[in-house]
Write a structure and sequence with these properties.
Elements lengths: L9 E6 L2 E7 L4 E8 L10 E14 L3 E14 L13 E3 L5 H17 L2 E6 L12 E6 H7 L10 E5 L2 H4 L16 E6 L4 E6 L3 E2 L15 H18 L12 E7 L5 H12 L3 E5 L7 H18 L2 E5 L2 H4 L9 H13 L4 E6 L7 H4 L4 E5 L4 H18 L6 H5 L2 H6 L4 H17 L6 H12 L6
Parallel strand pairs: 13-16, 13-17, 14-15, 15-16
Antiparallel strand pairs: 1-2, 1-6, 2-4, 3-4, 4-5, 5-9, 7-8, 7-12, 8-10, 10-11
Helix pairs in contact: 6-8, 10-13, 13-14
Length: 459
């Protein structure tokens, strides 16, 4: 083993979580040579052979620092003369592995380098249900993570060595090998849909591919669609002009009102996809109830939105802004805090509400456009079912019988359910088909609607 690993070797440590690379700074030294696992049954049990090698890899805490550690190589075999396969070792020199390991580390290094400051990414989580989108969206921004979690930064085992020089860290060009191969295997990202920070495997990070067709699938009057598109496009174009002064009142605020499942959230999602901007979801009930708490949370939200270039979506604003909450002593203060924040934000803000109540005049004066979403008509439901079938066919082309489903569009459209219920029914039907190892067809969807919503759909 002493000649197996050389100083300067890139070592690959393998585990169920994936591979990680280190640079050896010492040869392998023996620790345990031939100790039996169970001394009472020495003859039957294999023996443990263990070596240690000093090495380092990069750790990221806003800067790239060398993390110095000791790797242990353990082998179970009956004798020192036994020939073994290197795949039985947890730590192996990269030079002895096939080309795909080198490519994994190179790709990881380049991806991490793009994420070391701030980057909006798509993430393919193999454990997540990604039925209707290519991948979950995250904003990788370590400084924002540190600001939000100052006391919860990881403290890995090992000693920190030197920091990567700033002149290297600040350049767009990734470092040369072997440094490129030693980049961290994880980053932290903010999930804009759930407002949660999560650890992401760098190997599963991909570029965001904007779904420009999403706006075409938006079911609403053509004039409204053109108006939304023109307002959003004009506002974003102004951000790129240097002759436009950005003072208070220059933002775009839209209010979307209607019952659940009528298309309000999808309008915001489609507009963000068409604009090529992140959509930052905020549920107003998560902002707090007391004015001081709301003010602090809004400051964080608007700061992130500005830094990330995101469109803000405040859902269910009626929970604390509607006039029918006038008996609440904090209501006026909440309205004041919220409208003041809107006034000084120069980006795009979309508000949604399921309430039919009136809103404060101070809030409505900042709304550029208000749209009411009536319950879906049969024709709109038919269009919505069709759009979902198309998206499912793109996602799982061999797992869905599209022709079979399209033949029953009129039958599905008769069910007076909203867009959210349609989506939930399709998710249940898809899971039922997968469980039975079958293609998704009419019978799966019929059963899903019957069991979850009580509608008996007949062919």
């Amino acid at each position: 083993m002493g000649t197996f690993i050389h100083v300067g070797d890139v070592l690959v440590s393998r585990s169920p979580d994936g591979v990680k690379a280190y640079l050896a700074t010492s040869p392998a030294r023996p620790m345990h040579l031939g100790f039996p696992y169970d001394r009472e049954e020495d003859a039957q049990n294999p023996r443990k052979w263990m070596w240690a090698v000093d090495a380092w890899t990069y750790h990221f805490d806003g800067a790239l620092r060398r993390l110095e550690t000791t790797l242990h190589i353990e082998l179970r075999t009956n004798s020192a003369e036994e020939e073994i396969d290197i795949w039985r070792l947890d730590v192996v020199p990269l030079r002895l592995l096939d080309e795909r390991f080198l490519q994994i580390l190179r790709d990881r290094g380049r991806t991490f380098w793009q994420c070391r400051k701030r980057r909006f990414v798509s993430y393919l989580d193999k454990d997540a249900d990604v039925s209707y989108h290519e991948g979950e969206r995250f904003m990788v921004d370590f400084q924002a993570y540190k600001d939000a979690n100052p006391d919860s930064l990881d403290s890995p085992d090992g000693l920190f060595g030197s920091k990567m020089p700033d002149y290297i860290f600040e350049t767009d060009q990734p470092p040369a090998e072997p440094d490129l191969l030693l980049m961290p295997s994880e980053v932290v990202g903010f999930q804009l849909r759930t407002n949660k920070w999560k650890h992401l495997k760098v190997d599963r990070i991909q570029d965001v591919h904007w779904d420009y067709r999403a706006f075409d699938h938006l079911i609403m009057e053509a004039d409204w669609k053109r108006l939304i598109e023109s307002l959003v496009t004009t506002r974003l174009d102004a951000e790129h002009r240097t002759d436009v002064p950005f003072n208070k009142g220059n933002g775009l605020v839209m209010l979307l009102r209607g019952d659940s499942g009528t298309g309000k959230t999808y309008t915001a999602e489609a507009a963000a996809e068409r604009a090529g901007r992140p959509l930052y979801h905020i549920n107003c009930s998560d902002l707090g109830t007391k004015p001081d708490q709301i003010k602090a949370n809004l400051q964080t939200v608007f700061k992130r939105a500005k830094q990330w270039g995101s469109i803000l979506l405040f859902e269910d604003i009626d929970v604390f802004l509607a006039l029918d909450a006038a008996g609440d002593p904090d209501r006026n203060a909440r309205v004041s805090v919220f409208t003041h924040a809107l006034e000084y934000h120069d980006g795009i803000v979309i508000l949604t509400s399921t309430s039919h109540s009136l809103f404060d005049e101070a809030l409505m004066s900042r709304v550029r456009m208000a749209i009411y979403y009536p319950p879906l008509s049969k024709l709109q439901r038919s269009q919505l079912w069709h759009n979902f079938f198309v998206r499912l066919a793109d996602f799982m082309p061999f797992g869905i019988d599209v022709l079979n489903l399209r033949r029953h569009l009129d039958v599905f459209a008769e069910c007076e359910i909203n867009g959210r219920q349609i989506r939930n029914a399709l998710t249940t039907a898809r899971q039922l088909a997968q469980f039975n190892n079958e293609r998704l067809g009419f019978e799966h969807l019929r059963r899903a609607i019957l069991l979850t919503m009580g509608f008996d759909v007949s062919a």
